[in-house]
Design brief:
Layout lengths: L1 H4 L2 H8 L3 H15 L4 E3 L4 E3 L1 H28 L4 E7 L8 H12 L3 E7 L2 H9 L5 E4 L10 E16 L9 E2 L8 E4 L7 H12 L5 E5 L3 H9 L5 E4 L10 E6 L5 E9 L4 H13 L1
Parallel strand pairs: 3-4, 3-5, 7-11, 8-9
Antiparallel strand pairs: 1-2, 5-12, 6-10, 6-11, 6-12
Helix pairs in contact: 5-9
C-alpha cells in the first residue's frame, strides 16, 4: 500500500490503521531485510532499488497466500493433487483408457497425473504397498491380495496372432484344437498377467498343454516374434490395431476366449482417486 500510495498517511488510511504502527512495521521489515525499501522526506516517499525489486515479489506472495484456501478446498474435494497410475503395455491400444483419461483431465485439470508402464504383477504389488494409486491391469482370477480391489473395465475377446504365411492365415476364426502342437509365444507367468493362465485354460479345454516356444514380456514384442516365425500368440483383440508386417489375426472360436481388464486400487482411497472412479463409472 505504501509503495502504491507513495504516502504513509494515505496508505494507513487505506489499510484502516494508524500511521505510526504502519511506519514501525516498515522499519521492522527493513531491519530484517538489512536494507531500506523507501526514501522518505516531508514531500514524498519513493521506492529504493531494493523496494522496487521486492514489490512484484511481494504482490506474488500475497496472491499465492490468498489462493491457499482455494487450493486446500480443491485438494480436500479431490479437484487438485496428484494421481499416480500405471498400465500394462496393451492397454493404451484400447479405446476405454484414453476415453477415461481424457474425461478426467477435462473435469479435473488441476490434478497432476503420472502414468507409467508396469507389468500386472508389479502394479498389484505397488498398489498394495501404497506406491501407486491406480492400475490398469490384467490379473489372473482371484489374484488380488487383501486390501486391493479390482473393478472390471473391459471384457475383451482374445485373438490368435500367426505368421501371415501360416496355413491357417486368412481364416476368420480358428479353434484352439487346430493349433495343438504349435509353439506359442507367451508372457512369463511370474509377471502376473492373467493371459498366461487363460491360454493354459484354453489349451487344456482343447485337450492339450501349451507348448511354449519363446517368452516375451511385452505383447508388442510377442507379435513381432510371431511375425519372425517363432510361433503363434494369443493376444487381446485390441492388439490387431498394431500393424506389424508378416502377422495375421483370427478370432478364437468359443465364448470363453475372453480376457478381463481391471482397474485396481486400494480399498482406502483418496479424494482424487474417488473422483477418478466416478469418471470411470460414467464411462464403463
Amino acid at each position: 500500500a505504501v509503495a502504491e500510495e507513495r504516502h504513509f498517511g494515505r496508505a494507513a488510511e487505506r489499510l484502516r490503521m494508524a500511521q505510526p504502527p504502519l511506519s514501525q512495521q516498515i522499519q521492522a521489515l527493513e531491519a530484517e531485510l538489512g536494507t531500506r525499501l523507501f526514501d522518505r522526506n516531508r514531500r514524498k516517499v519513493e521506492l529504493t532499488a531494493a523496494g522496487d525489486a521486492l514489490l512484484p515479489e511481494a504482490r506474488d506472495i500475497l496472491a499465492r497466500a490468498a489462493d491457499l484456501g482455494r487450493l486446500a478446498r480443491a485438494a480436500a474435494g479431490g479437484e487438485a493433487g496428484r494421481l499416480d497410475m500405471a498400465f500394462t503395455g496393451s492397454v493404451p491400444f484400447t479405446e476405454v483408457m484414453p476415453r477415461i483419461l481424457r474425461r478426467f483431465r477435462n473435469q479435473f485439470p488441476e490434478v497432476r497425473v503420472s502414468l507409467r508402464e508396469m507389468s500386472t504383477g508389479a502394479q498389484i504389488e505397488a498398489v498394495a504397498e501404497g506406491r501407486l494409486d491406480l492400475g490398469f491391469a490384467r490379473p489372473a482370477a482371484h489374484n488380488l491380495p487383501p486390501g486391493v480391489i479390482g473393478r472390471l473395465i473391459l471384457r475383451e475377446p482374445l485373438v490368435l496372432a500367426l505368421p501371415s504365411d501360416h496355413p491357417l492365415a486368412g481364416r476368420d476364426s480358428i479353434g484352439m484344437e487346430e493349433v495343438a502342437g504349435e509353439g506359442l509365444v507367451m508372457n512369463p507367468r511370474h509377471i502376473g498377467t492373467g493371459l498366461y493362465d487363460k491360454i493354459t485354460q484354453l489349451c487344456r479345454a482343447a485337450g492339450y498343454a501349451p507348448r511354449i516356444a519363446v517368452e516375451a514380456h511385452q505383447m508388442s514384442t510377442m507379435i513381432r516374434l510371431v511375425g519372425a516365425g517363432l510361433g503363434l500368440a494369443v493376444v487381446p483383440q485390441t492388439m490387431c490395431r498394431v500393424g506389424f508386417e508378416g502377422v495375421a489375426y483370427a478370432a478364437i472360436a468359443g465364448s470363453d476366449a475372453m480376457l478381463d481388464l481391471l482397474l485396481i486400487h486400494r480399498d482406502a482411497i483418496t479424494p482424487v482417486t474417488r473422483n477418478f472412479l466416478t469418471v470411470v463409472e460414467s464411462i464403463t
